[in-house]
Write a structure and sequence with these properties.
Blueprint: H1 2-14, H2 16-36, H3 51-62, E1 72-78, H4 88-103, E2 108-111, E3 126-133, H5 142-149, H6 153-157, E4 161-166, H7 178-194, H8 197-225, H9 231-259, H10 264-291, H11 299-330, H12 337-344, H13 360-370, H14 372-386, E5 395-396, H15 408-420, E6 428-433, H16 436-449, E7 452-455, E8 459-460, E9 468-475, H17 482-494, E10 499-502, H18 504-538, H19 542-567, E11 583-584, H20 587-615, H21 620-647, H22 655-687, H23 696-701, H24 710-716
Length: about 725
Amino acid sequence: MATFLYRLGKGAFRRRRWVALLWVALLFLAGFGAASASTPTSSSFSMPGTEAQKAFDLLEERFPALAADGATARVVIKAPDGQKVTDPAAKGEVQKIVADLKSGSDQIATVDDPYQVQAVSQDGTTAYITTKYKVDAMGLTDKTREALKETGKDAQKSGLTVEIGGDALQTMPENGSGEAIGIMVAAVVLVITFGSLIAAGLPLLTALIGVGIGISSITALANVLDLGTTTGTLAMMIGLAVGIDYALFIVSRYRAELAEGREKEEAAGRAVGTAGSAVVFAGLTVVIALVGLAVVNIPMLTKMGAAAAGTVVIAVLVALTLVPAMIGFAQKRVLPAGERSRLFGGGKPKAAGAEEKPNGGTRWARFVLRRPLVVLLLGVIGLGTIALPVSQLQMGLPDEGSQPVSTTQRRAYDLLSEGFGPGFNGPLMLVVDGDKAAADKASEQVKALNVAEAVLPPTPNKEKDADTWIITVVPKDRPSSVATENVVHKIREVAGDEVLVTGQTAMNIDFSQKMDDALLPYLALVVGLAFLLLMIVFRSILVPLKAALGFLLSVVAALGAVVAVFQWGWLGGLFGVEQPGPIMSMMPIFMVGVVFGLAMDYEVFLVTRMREAYVHGERPGQAVVTGFQYGARVVTAAAVIMIAVFAGFIGSSEQMVKMIGFSLAIAVLFDAFIVRMAIVPAVLALLGHRAWWLPKWLDRVLPNVDVEGEALRKHLSDPAAGGPDQDRKLVEV
């Protein structure tokens, strides 16, 4: 593979204008497709195989109007202290709000009068108006949203409190200036790392082109493939981070090849042939982890993973083709001025045999080699301590009760809880597939459990010959509580097979259970495939095993930090967490997928250099030092860049995006700087030659992909062998 990539890199360098033109054309076509596509809608959410989903499918068949996907708004009105919404003056204001809602937009489907549908609390202090729209939240026009926001302004002047809940106010998440800050931090790190503006700008430019193509393609296909609105954010987050990192490794290796005296085209070819091999396998681990999310069998998660994986594939292709093409335009300008002068301008060459001053990576590796056991224990104990909060992990899906108290949605949620009870915001819906006798029996069974605040009378799907009934059950506790989860389980235990429990609360409970059930199979699949891949790359059993165990340690520690910040509220103000609450159900399995792929990036980039040195005769300890000498600075820069990019999404207004950004940033911090930079060299130092042991029979079975470039060197007849590369003449273009 190294030989093929070498030729690909040289070809891209030589035909740089055509390669650059091709990528610009792809960017233009993707951008045109995105601009021509209709506004993306919210993706449909389904969980095949769960009871809640079966009930919802039955509702779509028997109650099509009830199961419609249109947006919903709930306008909550509370009377001033000592007054009631049933008072004549207040009632007039409420009915005026109803009239304003009906005339406010042609997208309105229905508006319920609270006095006619009994939407008034028992104490008469609170009422709510349910408004349904013909389109989903993403399909609402700005005019419709503004009309909804203006609802009740006059009523508030009379002393009534008016708040608005529901998904009608849902908009695209705002990431603020976080992304721009992350890119600026990446630019600063690249300048410091390379000492050249050209070299720093090249990874940024190529990464932005790759991400632009990926995000534009997702936007263009969003409605066709039902990708939803958060898929592009995830793809941007991961694509931008790996795009910068992959280009960074190619450019860094090109500079190293130039420093050894090779011609520019030859240096570009060798950079892609060696570092490019690591990029391919690192990208494969990320793709495996993201595509593997399909094992959960939740279409939304599968599509998010596949779209993000597509962006990673584009990042790999950009690194292998566009980066060497851009190097062809920059050539020697990727080097700092002093180094450029020495190599190309007749500067004073280094004295023969002169030793280079050890860099930071070399000094750190030697320190770890002197005290491997101490470093290993400190790293493991430190991460283990941070992971302790995982034992108190509570999972759920965010609702309006988890939003900041500054939002009208949260205030509407609280008003409904005060007026109608905590469970009113998450009623359960029992779907009875049978006659009236079956519905009455199910209703009596639920009442006998004494677990509900209210059990409403069964409602049929048609007046005569009804074959399906709906029973609304209001739990005593809030939707996200353990008590409400127990209520769902108890109802399912006593009800017959013809009774199905659904509703948003039941869907959330089933979703969490599905995540729990899928975690171990998914972990086995992803880690197993990646273990096999790394075994092929490193020709070792213990190195991939160490990589997998180190990943598990870093991801559990990162999850512990997420619990401490988002569930317990520690340092919540620093990260914009206004309302601590349960961790999203998908977070553990999502972190396993994404963080595993990213963690293997650093494993491949760092350990490949060690493997390369070991194959060429260095002792195990010295191979570790060599790997850090050439790789530590670049891996450190790559990790800082990735952390900055992910941390930029912490400023998002969407709780899910905020949590993902924080979790990925902290996971990369732990994995890159504690696991890969400390625990990995410590373990390799303790293992010695055993780290690179592979049974002979397995060595014969596994394909040889030549990541360290041994076959490439033989193909090129290295100067040591007296080949044509011996003179290493410098040609200035």
